Amino acid sequence: MNQLIKVQENEQGEQRVSARELHKGLGIRERFSLWFERYEDMYVNGVDYEGVGLPTPYRKGSSKVQIIQDYLLSVDMAKHIAMMTKTDKGNQIRDYFIQVEKEHKALLNDPRIQMAMGLQSAQPMLDQKDKIIEEMKPKAVFADAVNTSKQSILVGDLAKLISQNGVKIGQNRLFAYLRDNGYLHKSGSQYNRPTQRYIDQGLFEVKESSHTNPDGSTRLTFTTKVTGKGQQYFVNKFLTNNDQMKIS
């Protein structure tokens, strides 16, 4: 299959596409920054795309480089953008991405590849197994305890849980982290409510309450709560992935 646009893999083995290469491949004449702005609010930053710096020569043959803005897109996002152009080129590129995905899945399902990937990922752990076991003991015990919880808690209570286990974070900073990383809505009537993606994954639920106003009318309030599964997810994420380093 001819390579129309390069599809690369990140460290997690996820396929990614350069937004600038897609912009060029689609033959878009509009300036790149204006073109991409139309899609930013349609997708989740950190899930569907992430910003990266792209070193580029000032001019052809120059030894000086400048860093320009680029974005790495999920293949799903790249397919949707290509389809939305409603051009023959867009349809061709969309079909190309579908084929790339099929070949990638077929490759991952090859038992020889699975064995090689398993050995590769396991080797560093085998080399440091004793150290890893000791480091993970308290984290595993705590995560298991959280997992048995059937009670959903407030985001502020989750911040306390995380802080009690060595990662200092308050309610406001945790809310900001959840918004910035696509777990909660950033604005509008859904502000601070969980996005549907993570409700479907069972990390959050929304409690609806009705209140009677002094004039006799009724108003509804909505409270974001973290499920037992969500508590385990976020505690593990902060303890094992050092996500506290990404909090502003």
Automatic annotation (TrEMBL):
An example molecular function term from Gene Ontology annotations: DNA binding
Domain of life assignment: Bacteria
Residues covered by the AntA/AntB antirepressor domain: 17-87
Domain Antirepressor protein C-terminal: 132-239
Record InterPro entries: Ant_C, AntA/B_antirep
Name of the protein: Phage antirepressor KilAC domain-containing protein
Taxonomic lineage of the native organism: Bacteria, Bacillati, Bacillota, Bacilli, Lactobacillales
